[in-house]
Amino acid sequence: GNGIGGPPTIQFTPLLINACNLGTEDFDKNSGLLLYPNPAHDRVNIRFETPQGESQVEIYDLTGRLISSFINKDNQGVYELDLAPMATGVYVVVLRQGGAIIMQRKLQVL
């Protein structure tokens, strides 16, 4: 270990949500990343869609430290992120596929 302790353990919970009920203004035809509510307090939903296949969602703080990440096997999904272990502040949520950043959004944790 580095003596500092690892990043907080953050739980991602897959949600089954009818995508038709969600706003799509942030989505283009093939890919998108939507965070709601934002700013968030205790939890945030992360909805993403990519053209195909496996993708990775990563959360960074403003110093560039990776706080959490998860790999999704499908090309779309909604995850609930428990924000309790995270300090208040601004984070960057990155949607990545094949090593390339497809999209990123700022998340404000209150």
Topology (elements, then pairings):
Blueprint: E1 12-15, E2 32-36, E3 43-49, E4 55-61, E5 66-72, E6 76-82, E7 89-97, E8 100-109
Antiparallel strand pairs: 1-6, 2-3, 3-6, 4-5, 4-7, 7-8
Give your account of this protein's structure.
There is one protein chain. This protein has about 110 residues and is mostly beta strands. It contains no helices and 8 strands. The chain has strands spanning about 10-15, 30-35, 45-50, 55-60, 65-70, 75-80, 90-95, 100-110. Strands 1-6-3-2 form a 4-stranded antiparallel sheet, with no helix packed on it. Strands 5-4-7-8 form a 4-stranded antiparallel sheet, with no helix packed on it. A hairpin with a 6-residue loop joins strand 2 (about 30-35) and strand 3 (about 45-50). The chain is globular. The protein starts with 11 loop residues before the first strand and ends with a strand. About 20% of the residues are buried.
